[in-house]
């Protein structure tokens, strides 16, 4: 009651700041939780106040996150304002009054999804993924970022990776990666990485133009670590490798390998280069020139990670074979 009194008057209750209830929810918590969900069917003012409160409670108190997993009705009740007004965020009379409500509800979904035992029930609740996909495309930068973060969190389960891939989320995630606010770009990259662990999503991501978007970001020095990891994963896909060849990725990757002190980045670069030169022998000339001038491949074959050493040695073997073959032929 003290909390509610403070909340209704816009006063922060000093005794509850940072308070985390590690115990299960009390009977009073359950009643309050149910009352807040009831408000999602009432006036916009009540919806907004309840959404803000649920966002705070699910941020601070694991017991409130757990309550959402106890009933199949809790999440549909939470999202009622969004399911009723779906499509009105980008156009329509509610545009000015709804972005903050959308942001609070999407952030509450993210908070609920962090709870491991909720991941399945959240992703399989009707409309959740659809609403997250909507939120990726419109809303405040924080809404878009938190929608991507929720998809990342949910994609920890393989069954959810499949659901999210089939939902049409990959294209808006790539668009967010391409044009999004800096804080949203990292969340989009994390979600794409997780989703691409399964083969069918990898194929869809390549088809939706991810390779070009990712390579452009890397060239611009944006999120190099995360994006190289995605590119290395995608480089097992034939079409992705062909696109990288066409985009002129070889000099860029060689430059990162020379200049980066990060062992993982160098490993990812050499893994991508290996698949490119296996796929397109004409690229061996660039690699041979690099080796002649800088000795980059030999260096990595000596001091890289075990995977980097293997890939660098594989390229050096190919260079030797190609060069010796040419030499014998011209002799």
TrEMBL record:
ARM repeats lie at residues 168-210. One of its GO terms (cellular component) is plasma membrane. Residues 99-215 form the U-box domain. One of its GO terms (molecular function) is transmembrane receptor protein serine/threonine kinase binding. GO terms for biological process: cellular response to abscisic acid stimulus; lateral root development; protein ubiquitination. Gene3D superfamilies: Leucine-rich Repeat Variant (1.25.10.10). InterPro entries: ARM-like, ARM-type_fold, ARM_PUB, Armadillo. It comes from the Eukaryota. It holds the Pfam family ARM_PUB. PROSITE patterns: ARM_REPEAT. Keywords: Repeat, Ubl conjugation pathway. This is U-box domain-containing protein. It comes from Chenopodium quinoa (Quinoa). The lineage of its organism: Eukaryota, Viridiplantae, Streptophyta, Embryophyta, Tracheophyta.
